[in-house]
Amino acid sequence: MLRKIYFIFVLLLCLTVSSVSFADEQSARQVVEEFQNELLAVMKDGKALGFKGRYDKLDGAVRKSHDLPKIARIVVGKQWEELSADQQVRLEKAISQLSISAYAHNFKDFSGETFTFISEEETGRGGVVMHTNLHIPGEKDVKFDYMMKKKDDGWRIINIIADGVSDLALKRSEYTSVLSRDGFDALIAKITEKIDNYAAQ
Amino acid sequence: MVQKCQIAGGKAVFFGILLMTVVFFAANAGAEEQQAEEEAVASGKPEVKSDVDPYEGFNRAMFEFNDYLDDYVAKPISDAYLWAAPSFLKTGVTNFFSNLKDISVILNDHMQGKFEQGAEDTGRLLANSSLGLLGFVDVATDLGLKKHEEDFGQTLAVWGVPQGSYLVLPILGPTTARGLPGGVVDAAANPSFYVGMPVQLVSMLNTRANAEGALKFINEAAIDPYVFTREAYLQNQQHLISDGKISATVNVLPLEDEIFDDEDAGKTTKPNSAGKSVQPAANNGSSTLNKSLDSAVTALDQASVSLQETDQKLEKLKKARSRKARKSK
Q1: ipTM higher than 0.90?
Q2: What does pTM read for this prediction?
Q3: Which of B127, B136, B158, B199 could form a disulfide with B195 if both were Cys (CB 3.0 to 4.6 A apart)?
Q4: Contacts of residue B235 in chain A, CB cutoff 8 Å?
Q5: Confidence at A77, pLDDT banded by 50, 70, 90
C-alpha cells in the first residue's frame, strides 16, 4: 500500500515538473509546428483575406517564430559592419517586410496541403534542424528543413531549406553581390521593388 | 536522306563544340584561378569572385542572351502552348518524355550501385511503355513506383569527380564542368535524340512549359536573378546527388559557423567566409586532392602498423619454435 502511494506521488511529481518546464518555453518543434499551422490557417482563408489580409495575419506569426534581425545580419555577411546604424535599421525593416510579403504571396490558397514532422537533428554548435515535409496533393512532396537557433526567449527559425535549397544562403549570395556591385541604396530599392510586386499581384 | 545527313552532321558539330568547350574549360580552370588569386593579392582587395564561378563575365552574358531568347522566342511559344493545349495533352507529353528519360535514369541507377532503385525504375519503364501507351500515361506512379531523378552528372559526382566551374550554356542553360559531359552522355542515352528535329523541339517546348512556375518564382523572388539561379541550381544539384539525405546539414553548417562566429566575437572577422560561396560543393580540385592524399597517408600508416604487428607475431613464433626445439633436444 505504502509502495503504491509512493509510486503515485513520484508520478505526480514527474508530471508537475515536466508541465512546468514545458509551460516555460516552447520547444523548437512546437515553434515550427505552430508557425506551420498558422500558415495553413491563412492559406485556407487566403482568397477571402486577400494579400493585405494575409500579410497582416502573417506579420505576427512570422515575427514571433523567425529571428528577422539575425537574418538581416547574415544576408549581407561581413558588410553588415560597414553599414551605418540607420542603414542597418532600414535593411532589417526591408528584409522583414520582404519575408512576410513572400509568405503572403506564395501561400495564397489552400488545396489540401499538409505539413508533417519527420525528425529533429542537432547541429554542431547548439542549433537544431527540424526536418518536415510539405505534402501537396497530386504533386511531389517538398522537403522543408528549418534551421533553428535559441534566443533568450526561445527557439527561432533562421533559415528555411526547401528541397535542399537554402533560402538564407541564396539571399546571402544575392545580397552581397548586389551590395558590392551597386551599393546599399540599390539593394534597398530592389528589395522594395520586390515587396511592391508581391503586393500588386 | 540529305536531311538526315544534315542532322547527323549537325550532331557531330554539336558534339565537337561541346567536347572542345569541356577541354577548354578544364585546361583553363587551373590557370585562371591562380591568376585571379594573384590579382586579388596584388590589388590588396578581398576576393569578391566566387570560387565556383570563375567565368562570371561570360556566364552573365550567356544568361542575358538566354533571357532575351526566352522573352522573345521560347516564352511566347510556351505561353501559347500552355494556353491552347488541353491539360491531358500537356500531361501526356510530359509523361512521354519523362518515360524516355527513365532509360538514362536506369543506366545511372546501376552505375551508382543503386540496384534496388534501378529495378524499380526498370519496372516503371516497362509498365509505362506498355500499359501506359508508350509512356503517355504514367501508370507506374499509380502502381506505387516512384519516379527518380538521376543523370550522368550525378553519377560522376558519386564516382568522386569534382564539380568544377559553374557554366551557363547558350540555350541549354546552367551546368557545371562536371554536368557538361554528363549532359552529353544522357542525351546519347535518350531515344528522342536520334529521332530528329521535330521531336526535339517538342521536347524543348515541354521542358520550357514545365519550367514556367520555377521561372516565374525566380522572377518574383530574385533581386539578382543570375546569382539566384546559380546558387539554387548548385544547391539543388547537391540535393539530388545526395538524394536529399545530407544536404540540409551540409548547406547549414558553414552558415551556422558564421552565425555563431558573428555572435561570439563580433570584432574578429574571419577572412575565409568573405565573398565566397557558401556552397560546400565549391570545394573542387585541390581539396579532393588533399582528401585523397590524406586517406592515402592514413592507409599507409595502417599498413605499416599491421606490418609491425605481423613482424612481432613472426618473432614470437620463431622464439616459440626455438624453445620447442630446445625442449625436444
Answers
A1: no
A2: 0.69
A3: B199
A4: 164-166, 169-170
A5: confident
